Amino acid sequence: MGKPTLVYTTFPNLENAKSIVGYLLEKKMIACANLREHEAHYIEDGDIAIKTEVGAFLKTAENKWDVLKDMINEIHPLETPVILKINIDDSNEEFENWICDTIK
């Protein structure tokens, strides 16, 4: 099944994040998601923008990355979403087994 992998993305609001995370859980693309609302500061059209958004850490397996990235890109409401793969060098065996059992 592969090593555990974290995928980080953001959503414009909590409702949208919950909807997409629910879909990814149903499709067994992820085993778990941690959602957190935060303030984002960034450049938009040459100006500094400050908006509230929801960050999501998606717990999955490395071999799901390519399909998961494409799925998020396709259903994400933003034109240019951030979709980052965060490799995990090591983790406890119980967690690895849980990920594998949950999304197989």
Automatic annotation (TrEMBL):
Gene3D superfamilies, from UniProt? Answer: 3.30.70.120
Q: Which Pfam families match?
A: CutA1 (PF03091)
Q: Name one GO molecular function term.
A: copper ion binding
Ranges in a coiled coil: none
Top-level division of the source organism's lineage: Archaea
Q: Name one GO biological process term.
A: response to metal ion
Family note: Belongs to the CutA family.
Q: What is this protein called?
A: Periplasmic divalent cation tolerance protein
Lineage, highest ranks first = Archaea, Methanobacteriati, Methanobacteriota, Methanomada group, Methanococci
